[in-house]
Queue: 3 jobs
Job 1
Amino acid sequence: MGKQRLLVHTCFLIFALGFTLVARTQAQWLPLNPVKSSERLPDGVLVSLDNGYLRFQVCSDSIVHVIYSLEREVPTHPDFLVIKKDWAKTDFSPTIPKSLSSAPHKCASK
């Protein structure tokens, strides 16, 4: 009787753990947001997504500012911190593949 009880408890725990993990993994997936087009900007790249825009602004050789917004022009908000917004011009030439779905995304800096 002890072995049967242990088997029932073990099966219940495995079932409960599996149910919990399946519910949690499904909650982690977000719907895809495919790339529609891309546009070169003087200081980076603007990628148009199905829902929103993704802007890569190259600030320096080691700093890239990434902004996601639902609007093409990002609304400005008051900053209560000291944030540098004026950067020296960086020599930047992005390499954007013709077919974004089949080629890896690369941005090369000279």
Job 2
Amino acid sequence: MTTITTRPSALQPALFEAAAVLRNLFAQFQRALQRFDARWQARARAAVAIRELNSLSDRDLRDMGLSRGDIPRLVEQERNWRRG
């Protein structure tokens, strides 16, 4: 019966370093995806707000002190307000 002994390979430190680099890249990619998702959701909320305001009659908008031209500006101000 033969016994196989394993000894550290010369490549082992390089493999650990490569694994650390890959973990870092994956973490950065995850953060980028989270930012993209947050922006995507903000755009979706803005589209809903624009759709709802555009569905109102001119009289309803006037009762609120708004015109149709104010709608995009209001939505942009809301987005900026949420960003802080």
Job 3
Amino acid sequence: MERAQYAFTIASREKAFCDQLYKMRPVSNYRELQELLLDDLRIEEQELAKLNLQNLEYIAQHYPSRNVRKLYGLMRRRTQYVGNRDKGTGIFIV
């Protein structure tokens, strides 16, 4: 993006999430990641649902962070779960 004489870029939603997770302590499992996202960072489930899985996959493959890889795994599981909502409650399964 360019304004006047300054040029700058704006991170995608997915990259911004990954940048934030990169700076945080590594989580051990999906349950810890879910608690980190929903409770500690207070991110709404609806906002997480807006993440693009293909973008997350690309970022996770190129980002040196366990948290980022776990975010991709969690969102991939969520995507599979949404197709079978009648088997449980809530958006996430851990």
